[in-house]
């Protein structure tokens, strides 16, 4: 089969895998499984679900980081990262993944896009991805995200409530991780790609926040992020 093409925005801002946690998640998985891939900038109009990341696999376009990973896991059979997990471990992995991706994610959108400090931080990075004058496009994206947050519900909370939600989510991950090297024990599993992507997205960008300070105070999460980074992202510059 031809080499997988990963369609993601270029760049490693602040030493992140990607600005988008879903792109970091999928690329982390490809690195965890030593799946050969080439990266290519996405076309939003060509994206199967209108979102990033997506991949070309054997001539087929597949959208959604999780659907791509599930397909690759199926193809790997006994070499799948989640092979051998118990029903209970799979359930914990699923619950943590969906908490981060369908809940915590929106607290990150609030911090990066709605708060002025976050918007000031992210705008120059977004401008690198948008050809031509980007000011208007960024304001449009911000306004669309404000509506998305309102519809999803996070946008109806105060800033303080949103911060408390995010911290409680990371505390839950910290409690589940305990002193294990990976979320479900001794070996890295698919859920670790998500957990890593979300933690680096809080820890690396130069945005001081109550959430970042709280995560920095959870020593096991900080050590975990460094462990995964060393193992899968050692090619990225520090700092
Ligand atoms: N469930 C999707 C979520 C992907 C997602 O929300 N990507 C965002 C960037 S972080 C996106 O493409 N947003 C563009 C849009 O919603 O129009 C996945 O896991 O791939």
How would you characterize this protein structure?
With 239 residues, the chain is of the alpha+beta class. It has a domain at 4-79: Glutaredoxin. 57% of the residues lie in helices and 7% in strands. It is built from nine helices and four strands; from the N terminus they run βαβββαααααααα. A four-stranded mixed beta sheet has the order 2-1-3-4, covered by helices on one side. β1 (4-7), α1 (21-32) and β2 (37-40) form a beta-alpha-beta unit. The longest helix is centred in the middle third of the chain and has 28 residues, at 87-114. The protein starts with a strand and ends in a 7-residue tail after the last helix. The model has no long low-confidence stretch (mean pLDDT 97). Bound molecules: glutathione (GSH). Glutathione binds next to α2.
Name the average pLDDT.
97
User: Which parts are unreliable, with pLDDT below 50 for 5 consecutive residues or more?
Assistant: none
CATH superfamily of the domain at 4-79: Glutaredoxin
Percentage of residues in DSSP E strands:
5-15%
Radius of gyration: 18 Å
Count of separate DSSP helical elements: 9
Residue share in helix? 55-70%
> Pairing-aware structural class of the strands and helices?
alpha+beta
Approximate shape: globular
The CATH architecture name of the domain at 4-79 reads 3-Layer(aba) Sandwich
Question: H/E series, N to C?
Answer: EHEEEHHHHHHHH
Q: How many DSSP E strands?
A: 4
User: How are the strands of the biggest sheet laid out side by side?
Assistant: 2-1-3-4
User: Ions, cofactors, ligands: which are bound?
Assistant: glutathione
Largest sheet entry: 4 strands, mixed
CATH class of the domain at 4-79: Alpha Beta
What is the straight-line distance between the termini?
Answer: 37 Å
The CATH topology annotation of the domain at 4-79 reads as: Glutaredoxin
